[in-house]
Amino acid sequence: MNGTEPVDAGVGDDDALYVLTAVLLTPAQFPSLLGDDYPEACAALGLEPYAEGYGLVFGQDGEGARWTVVVDDVSLVAVAIASWDCGMEYDLSPDERSVVAALPGWPVALAVAAPHVPAPHDPETGQGESPPLTPPDPGQWGPAQRRMGADEVALQWAAWREQLGADAFVPADAVDDASVSPAAPGGHEPGAAGDTGPADDSHGPLRRVLAALHRYLEEPPPPGRVRSGFAPGGARTLRADGPGWSVVARTDDIAFVLLDEMPREVLPIGRGPNLPSLLAALDAMAVRPA
Questions:
Q1: Where is the composition biased (Low complexity) (predicted)?
Q2: What's residue 177's pLDDT?
Q3: How far apart (Å, rounded) are the C-alpha atoms in residues 166 and 177?
Q4: What is the pLDDT of residue 4?
Q5: How far is 40 from 195, CA to CA, in rounded Å?
Q6: Host H or E run for residue 99
C-alpha cells in the first residue's frame, strides 16, 4: 500500500498523489482522535456528516507534501483497507469524480513515506486558507489523546485485562449500576503497566460517566458516540464517548474509563449486578460496521 503510482487527486504538482494508506470516516468507524462522534469528526475536517460517510486517503504529492484526500467512494476505500489488512497488495486509485476535498496535511501520524519523492512535509498554504492538518501532540493530554488512549485499550484488551488479575473485582463500593474494583484506579497509563491505587477518588467521575451512558439509552446521542465492534467468543467490544470521557468495554466482561480530568489513567469498572444489562442495551443501540 506504500508509494503506489500517482493518481489524479487535485493536490498540486500536476495533481499527482502517491497514496500511502487510508481510513474510513463513517458513523460506525472513524479516527476517534477527530471527535467524540461522527458529526464532530466530520466538522474537524470541514465536511458535512453524510450518512454514507467518506474515505480518507493519505498521500504525498510529487514534491513530498502531505495531503488528505476525501472521497465519497467508501466501498473502494473499504476494499483497499481489507486487502491491506490481509497482507494483499491493492492499488487504491480513487476516481477524480469521487474526490470531495483535498486537505493539506495529515490529521494522523504516519510512519511511512512515498519512495522517490522528498520527505513528508506540510504544503504551504496561502493567506486566509486553512492551516495544514496535524496529528495531536502525544506529549499533551486532552480529548484527542484521551480517545486515542481508549483506542489503544481496545486494541490491547487482553494485556490490560491481564494486569488486573482474575480476582481484582470483588464487589466494593457501588458506583451507580456497577461496582468499581477495590484496586482501581491510579497510575495506569496507556501503553505502560503500573500499580493501581484506591478507588475512592474516582467514584464521582465514574458515577457521572455511568449516568451519561444511561441517558444515551433514553435519548440517543449523535451517531458514532456508541460503537460496537467484533470481540472473540461471540462478545462485542463497545466504544462510547462523551464530553470529557471515553469508555471501552466487552459485553462479556468489564469496562475501562478514561477521563480528561485524570490524565493517562485507565479506570476499571467491575461487572457488578447491573453492568451486563447496561452493556447489552448499549450494544443494541450502537452503530456497527457494515
A1: 177-193
A2: 46
A3: 21
A4: 52
A5: 35
A6: strand 99-104
Report the alpha-carbon distance of residue 74 to residue 213 in Å, rounded: 30
Q: How many CB atoms lie within 10 A of CB 216?
A: 18
- Segment 252-287, tens digit of pLDDT: 999 999 999 999 999 999 888 889 999 999 999 999
- Residues 68-123 have pLDDT tens digits of 999 999 999 999 999 998 999 888 888 889 999 999 999 999 998 899 899 999 99
β strands within 105-202, DSSP E = 174-175, 178-180
Number of other residues whose CB lies within 10 A of the CB of residue 207 = 16
Q: How far is CA 258 from CA 29, 33, 171, 245, 264, in A?
A: 20, 14, 21, 6, 7
Pairwise CA distance, residues 170 & 112, whole Å = 45
CA–CA separation, 41 and 35 (whole Å): 5
